[in-house]
Each structure stands twice: as structure tokens, then as C-alpha cells.
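Re: the request from the purification team.
They wanted to know what the chain is likely to look like in 3D before they choose a buffer screen. I agreed to run a prediction and write the result into the notebook, where they can find it.
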Amino acid sequence: MAHNCIYSAADFKSDQQVKWCPGCGDHAVLSSMTAALAKISSEDCVPREKFTVVSGIGCSSRFPYYVKSYGFHGIHGRAAAIATGVKVANPDLNVWVATGDGDSLAIGGNHFIHAVRRNVDLTMMLFNNEIYGLTKGQYSPTTKLGKITKTSPFGTIEKPFKPGELAIGAGGTFFARSIDAEVALTTELLVSAARHRGMAVVEALVNCVIFNDKTHNNFAGDKAIRAENTILLKHGEPMIFGANRDKGLVFDGEQLRVVKIGESRGDGSQSIVTEQDILIHDAHTTNPMVHFLLAGMSWPDYPVALGIIRQVEAPSYDSEVHRQVAEQMAGTKIADIDDLLNSGATWTVAKS
């Protein structure tokens, strides 16, 4: 059956009213996602009915209503588990997961790490606003230490999760990060994530204007701030950042260190830092050590890493399940339920 392979972002926008607060960062990610779906559909000729969006509970979990595709609005924290079932049952589907830092890293934390560990072929958009927004402002697993919220009136006393460290530590094969305001970058990352064969996690740093406004502003507030305090990683390119492209990262023992090009390296050698000294980003190395360090960098000690941090190949869970099924089917004489029921020792019970 022939399919129309020419899609626009508008083709993936549903007729439902978008019920996020004005100024919420989720609006920008929705624009990025519909643009990404249009690009994948048009370039890879994937019909719209092959896309499925699965979510849990939270502001970001409204996504299935706003995307014109198949969708499943699940329960709190269970989106990864539901999406795994969808993908294994129908491997031809292009399955996306929309989840937040509270949904996937608190009650859904176990499902998250095991979906990553299994390398299920899912594309996960992990919205991180460092707060529970839908339930009105409780602190989440990524809320900054000391933050005063409705459930931490004297400040949180918990060290927050860093989603990238968690994903890479669980054996993840793809992790990337973007900021809600960087719509084009988010689109690019989502396309790469969807084309990755295996579990792909894209963390989107989003702003909650009501309950955690400007939580990312120290490094993501505007373009000038982002230029100085974030680093856009690209495979095979030196890790250089700054408004004047004069700062970079070097490997110092077991840690990354920020240096300034043209100034002393600061390691006691008195040598001057050149561009050749700057570490080259290798997103494809199977050794996760540097990826783990990059994912864990935080302001003000380091620039926050954006782009694809890790992208390596490994068999996906769903493809391995279907490989095993095919092997077993090829080596058995039992083709259907009748063959199964009539195999082995059988007997007939005569009517009395």
C-alpha cells in the first residue's frame, strides 16, 4: 500500500486545545516534536499511523492528546513499561515516551532504568523542570538541594538526580540534552534519537513559570548566558564553548577541567593552552567514563552539556525477543495451537 511521505509539522498537531500555562517550556518542545515527526515521516517515509506516543502522569504526559498519532495516556511512572509492551508486541511502530522528572525518576524510576538497561527501541522525551508541576509544586528527584517548595518548606535535604548520569550508569546507548528555548536543536536531537536503534533518552530542560520559574536561568536564561555557560557537543569536534569560542574542556587525570585558550593550562607546567589541547568529543566510544562526566557537568563549575552526549550501537531488547521467537519457530514442528494440543502423549476419552 502506497503512503503519502510528504508531511508537515501541522499534520502532526491534533485539534485538541493545548492546556499548558502560557510561557511553559512544554509548548516549545511540542513544536520541536511535531517538526521532528514531520522530518522523519517525510525523509524516512514513515506513515503517520506508525507513530505512537505513550505517557504517564504530569504536565508533559498530556502529549498524546496534542499529537495527531496513536497514543496511550498511562498511569504515574508506568509509561516506559507500557511503551515496552507496545514495542515488543508491534516492532514496526515508532514508539515515543513523553515523561517528566517526577513521573519517570520517582515512582517510575525502576521502569526507567530497566528500559534503559534493556535497550528497548523507544524514543523518550524527559522533561526536566525540577519540580512537580501538575500536582502544584512539590519537590522532585531533580530539584536543587536546598530549594524551598511546598513539601520542603525549610529547603530540600536530598541530593538531586542527574538524569544523564542515571541513564548512562544504567548502560544507556543514547543520551542527549537540550533546552526548551533551543527549538531547532531539540528537533535535531529528537530526529537522531528516533533513528537510533535502541533506547534513546533526550532530556529537555524546561521552565515551569508557576512553580519553579527560571530554575535554569543561570546557564540558559538567554542567548548570551547560554553561550558562556553551556557547551554544544558534536561528535568529532573539539569541546570549545564561550561567546568568543575561547574556552574548552581538557581531561585532567580522572576529571574534566575548564581551560581558556591562549592562557596558562594551570597544571604547573606553564604551558599555554591551544585549540589542539582541547578534548575531542567521541559520542560513539563504548567506554562511558567521559560521557558520564559530561552528563554530570553543572553550573557554575562547568558549562552544561547540550547535544548528543552518548550514541553507541547495541542490540535492542525488542529485536532480540523477535530473533528468539523466529529461531524457535524455525526449529519446531508445532505451527499452531492445534499442533501443540495434539503433541506429546494424547488420548481420547470415550463417551459412556
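For the purification team: The chain has two domains: 9-236+282-318, 238-280.
Please add any questions underneath this entry.
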